[in-house]
Specification:
5-stranded antiparallel sheet; 2 domains; globular; disordered N terminus; alpha+beta; 38% strand; single chain; 9 helices
């Protein structure tokens, strides 16, 4: 169910929003489809999990990976990113990509650079031959790699190796790509400099806390899930929240078996046959749906249909949703919730 959750949500939102936009009732076939999707998705949240986990020691310093560079080095490195930046258009099977190529200066060194830097398009000023604005999707990926470079002079070796940056994003309205393209892209460059964290215990159900300037309310904790009400659920920052499921002993956590280790366990122990390997899953559920399935976990599909009319499905308030964090083991000794703090948030402007 979990691997399908996001896809199912997207499909449901498509049908509901399409119906709303068209100001029309869903057809019988569409409503049956949505009923089944919502029922299967939400009922699965309250099903008894099949656990497969082990206990490991953890080091917060290794969990909370942050920049070790000085502020001056970070800022001068961002200047270097802007000076060396080039963007190009790439034709692919599904449309067009925008490729950013740049590099950090040779004096900039970070052990976990891919974990501490966020690089995303903030504003598009790219226009086509008809002066139409190109919309850029913020998906894609960033790869930062070491380029080895040494110079020998007067019998001495100088290390001039540097970090190259490759950022791929997708043009949303690919049909509008009529060359030549001109204009600019404004990128947000952020560095993780610290972390915001909070330990949550079972007794904290009903209490509020703040994490990285976002307010949360602990709505419930059951089995391997913690249910949160969030002030701004659709704020991108909530997607950064992470979780440590604390073990019985200090300094330990409960973690999922790696996939191939779990496969081997399933070969000799039947209880692991249908278990899944995952670290943390995030999902949302509308409050009224949550309340219904929480109070009636054995509700049938027909009973579910009686609780929600087609009109109620169509007019669901997506702002009244709960965030559910699911881990691979039961929550007993509590959890540590944490988010990265981007203490450096700058912009670079790259001309096409």
């Amino acid at each position: 169910m979990k691997s399908r959750n996001i896809i199912m949500i997207i499909i449901c939102i498509f049908f509901l929003s399409h119906s709303y936009a068209q100001k029309k009732e869903m057809t019988e076939e569409e409503s049956e489809f949505v009923y089944h999707l919502l029922y299967d998705m939400n009922k699965g949240i309250f099903e008894k999990p099949i656990y497969a986990f082990k206990t490991e020691k953890f080091d917060l310093d290794k969990k909370f990976i942050k920049s070790k560079s000085s502020l001056n080095d970070i800022l001068s490195s961002i200047d270097s990113l802007e000076e060396n930046a080039r963007i190009s258009l790439e034709k692919v099977r599904y449309g067009y990509n925008i490729i950013l190529e740049t590099k950090f200066p040779s004096y900039f060194h970070e052990d976990e650079v891919n974990s501490i830097i966020s690089l995303n398009v903030k504003e598009s000023g790219l226009r086509n031959n008809s002066n139409e604005l190109l919309e850029i999707m913020n998906g894609g990926g960033t790869s930062i790699n070491t380029v080895l470079n040494y110079r020998y002079e007067d019998g001495k070796e100088t290390d001039l190796s540097y970090l190259s940056v490759h950022r791929q994003t997708q043009v949303k309205n690919s049909d509008s790509v009529i060359e030549p393209i001109s204009g600019y892209l404004l990128y947000s460059v952020k560095f993780v400099t610290d972390y915001s964290f909070k330990r949550i215990l079972i007794k904290d159900i009903g209490s509020s806390f703040t994490l990285n300037n976002t307010k949360y309310l602990v709505r419930d904790i059951f089995e391997n899930k913690i249910v949160l009400e969030v002030d701004s659920l659709y704020n991108n920052e909530t997607a950064d929240i992470q979780l440590i499921n604390l073990g019985d002993e200090n300094g330990t956590e409960l973690v999922s078996y790696p996939y191939f280790e779990l496969v081997k366990l399933a070969e000799t122990d039947e209880k692991y046959k249908n278990a899944k390997s995952f670290s943390l899953l995030k999902m949302t559920i509308e409050k009224s749906m949550y309340n219904l399935f929480k109070s009636q976990p054995d509700i049938t599909l027909e009973e579910f249909k009686e609780k929600f009319s087609k009109e109620e499905l169509r007019n669901q308030d997506m702002t009244k949703e709960l965030l559910i964090l699911e881990t691979s083991a039961p929550i007993g000794k509590g959890v540590i919730l944490y988010e990265a703090i981007y203490g450096v948030d700058e912009e670079i402007r790259v001309t096409f």
